[in-house]
Amino acid sequence: MIQKLQDSRAVLLGAVGIFALGLTTSGYALGDGLRRYKLAEHRTVTVRGVSERNVTADLATWSVNFSHQGTELAPVQQAVDQQARAVRAFFLRSGFKPQEITDYDVSLNREQPTDREGEPVGPQKLTVSRSIQLRTNDITKVRGAYARQAELLRDGVELVGSGSNVSFTFTKLNALKPEMIAEANQNARRSAEQFARDSGVSVGKMKTASQGYFSVGARDGEDCDDCGSSGGSSPFQKVRVVTTIDYDLG
């Protein structure tokens, strides 16, 4: 009887030992697999591809802001109307079409002068402000007229605030997007291949890709990956896009 108990105990201990060895082996295999997976996960390279185009704006928006101040509305309004006619005459003699010229904004501001105690003193001051806008595709003509804008002052136009300013816009961006995105992706791939050659490995498949948004800025300005300018004061502009791509390394 005692012999049978000893034999059963030996069998049980042997089974426990085999089970423990199996757990140890499978745990090592699992840990080694995770380690290998993590190493493979980090065998990537992140590269950026850039594409740029020099373009010329094809739309100009020119706003002229002016005003007049007085104590009675009628004469103030008449003065502003006279300035509006002067602005329109300036645009017309510069060669622009009537349909390219529009009234953009008008406002009236009342200000009551007061003494130290806050009591009204004298009549109200009335200020009528107005804006006329030119919108045209003739960029060359705009540049020529803008150089002569001092004529507005000689014609009695009381420029206020930003006075007279032109914004140039490139409107054909969508036509450039497919070609520029393809070029940026190709440049990113070339950068990845160069990095791989220098590292003694090969480039695998693309893991992730992020297309940056398009920016349009002055052609002679600084490069800016996160700029969203629509062009601004210069008709000579640069369109730029940057893509970011992660590649596997073999």
Short structural description:
The protein has 250 residues and is of the alpha+beta class.
Written overview of the protein:
The protein is α+β, with helices and mostly antiparallel strands and 250 residues long. It folds into 3 domains: 1-38; 43-56 and 172-249, Translation Initiation Factor IF3, CATH 3.30.110; 60-166, Alpha-Beta Plaits. It has helices spanning 2-41, 73-93, 139-146, 150-154, 173-199; strands at residues 44-56, 59-70, 101-111, 125-136, 159-169, 203-211, 215-218, 231-232, 236-249. The strands form 2 sheets. It has a 5-stranded antiparallel β-sheet with strand order 3-4-2-5-8, covered by helices on one side. Strands 1, 6, 7 and 9 form a 4-stranded antiparallel β-sheet that branches. It is elongated. Residues 1-39 and 224-229 have low confidence and may be disordered.
